[in-house]
Amino acid sequence: MRAALLLEYDGGGFVGWQRQENGLSVQQVLEEAASRLVHGAPVVSAVAGRTDAGVHAEGQVALLDLPRDLAPERLRDALNFHLRPHPVVVLCAAPAPAGWHPRFSARARCYRYRILNRPARPALTAGRVWHVERPLDVPAMAAAAAALLGRHDFSSFRASLCQASSPVKTLDRLDVTRAGDMVEVRAGARSFLHHQVRNMVGTLKLVGEGRWPAAHVAEVLAARDRRRAGPTAPAEGLCLTGVRYDEDLFAQGPEMPG
Amino acid sequence: MRAALLLEYDGGGFVGWQRQENGLSVQQVLEEAASRLVHGAPVVSAVAGRTDAGVHAEGQVALLDLPRDLAPERLRDALNFHLRPHPVVVLCAAPAPAGWHPRFSARARCYRYRILNRPARPALTAGRVWHVERPLDVPAMAAAAAALLGRHDFSSFRASLCQASSPVKTLDRLDVTRAGDMVEVRAGARSFLHHQVRNMVGTLKLVGEGRWPAAHVAEVLAARDRRRAGPTAPAEGLCLTGVRYDEDLFAQGPEMPG
Question: Which among A56, A73, A124, A252 is the top mutation candidate for probing chain B, defined by the most B β-carbons within 10 Å of its own β-carbon?
Fold first, then answer.
């Protein structure tokens, strides 16, 4: 059976989604849990967004190929049993439609980046936010963000290790809002370059601190030069909140972009 | 100097607010940090709400008596420096008004209780929620909660260890709402009995699961018998979100009840 899974995980203790030699990955934990359901046979997974080390997910979508049929709810509960004690859970499982692939069929991905903007370091939100002490000018950040919307060459916001064939992407959403001490950036696009969201947030933060005028961000974009943009924001503030497909995979899904 | 402090802490690793022989308390951590500011002289604190083991706070209010004057922002930053690495931070410090006391001057306390209502255990909200798998009927819980509003003898919801002189309290607010998988109970009153919020939540959960009709909660209240109410909800879902005073202590405070 091919099963689509909706996943939540705390990326803090992982080397990222993808299997690596140097530490525990979410993929390894998921595949090993799935392997327990089929008497130790190896199980291979694919995923919508290969999140980096430390990046969280509330709505990651994965595909599991299993040599055995299981009712979706039983599959969810059995995987969750074997995923213990890792901070990875299956929110929902469903039969995967024919030809569907979590990465290549994705229509949109939505990320949320949280900045805790106050003098005191986080206590209750430790590991979930970027702590920025200097007061951020959110309207200026929102104005700068608007300049990044649309179809552009995002080379200025692309990690050197990025394997995408083209630096041209279409950014559909980049909202910056504040609720008390928490500043949230929400980004939506069909796909992103490696580190694109974190590099955009690191740049918007410089605008929010008043170090760069909002209008400077359009120049940074036009330069197509990674050295012109701000630093990469830390992983722990980032969360993959949802992935959208043409197919309605899960009865009750997470927050969807758009 | 007498300083009023606004505190945030993760109660997970503490025996509660109050100093105890059997483990680390928030009070001990705060007083030891303050003692570092005055060359090791002992410092005594008082607090608005003596939270139990595992209970969190976003808006706890404390009083520190210090044998030395410090500017409020310097006091906040110096305490935060010495509070590391404990998950306790000072959000704001201010000179305490004459005659003001964090506990006895409090006009209202506001608590939030979070229930994660879904099949999968929490990954990102672990330690911050009560995980309840069975779908909760939130309108029924809200109807039951309404029966508890006002001035009553809350003996049915009072811990046997409660030291309050009277079981009569006035409950000003008890809202039950849902946002996706998260069910929130918000409670506001001048003061609460020991375990009152957690006992009310444990009772409302039985209504939400359909085990008790909403109208049964009024009977439980009228019985003035702890054995008639539901079990005590776990500590980790509870957070003291704010305390209100006649005085406007902090320039920018947390969410206030009412």
Answer: A124
Taking the Cβ of residue A120 and every Cβ of chain B, the question of whether any pair is shorter than 8 Å is answered with yes
Any CB–CB contact under 8 A between A82 and chain B?
Answer: no
Please state, in angstroms and rounded to a whole number, the distance separating the CA atoms of residues B127 and B13.
10
Q: How many residues does chain A have?
A: 258
Give the model confidence (pLDDT) of B134-186 as tens digits. Answer: 999 999 999 999 999 999 999 999 998 888 889 999 999 999 999 999 999 99
Coil, strand or helix: which one is B232?
coil
Both tokens of residue A195?
């580190």
Contact A8 B88 (CB under 8 A): no
Question: Which tokens hold the place of B251?
Answer: 């320039």
* Domains of chain B, start order: 2-105 (3.30.70.580), 108-240 (3.30.70.660)
Strand partners, A113: A185, A238
Residue written as token pair 């290969």 = A50
Check CB contact of B124 with chain A, cutoff 8 Å: yes
Rounded to an integer, what distance in angstroms lies between the CA atom of residue A150 and that of residue A146? 9
Measured between alpha carbons, how far is B52 from B55 in angstroms, rounded to an integer? 6
Strand partners, A127: none
pLDDT tens-digit series, residues B52-67: 999 999 999 999 999 9
| Cβ contacts of A29-36, under 8 Å, gap ≥ 24 | A29/A83, A29/A86, A29/A88, A30/A5, A30/A62, A30/A64, A30/A79, A30/A83, A30/A88, A32/A82, A33/A79, A33/A82, A33/A83, A34/A64, A34/A66, A34/A79, A34/A82, A36/A82
Identity at B218, one-letter amino acid code: A
The CA radius of gyration of chain A, in Å to the nearest whole number, is 19
Q: Which of B6, B7, B8, B90 to mutate to test the interface with A (most CBs of A within 10 A)?
A: B8
What are the structure tokens assigned to A110, written together? 């939505």
Which residues of chain A neighbour B56 with C-beta distances below 8 Å? Answer: 124
Report ipTM (2 d.p.). 0.92
Q: Which residues lie below 8 Å from residue B136, measured CB to CB, with a gap of 6+?
A: B115, B117, B178, B183, B205, B208, B209
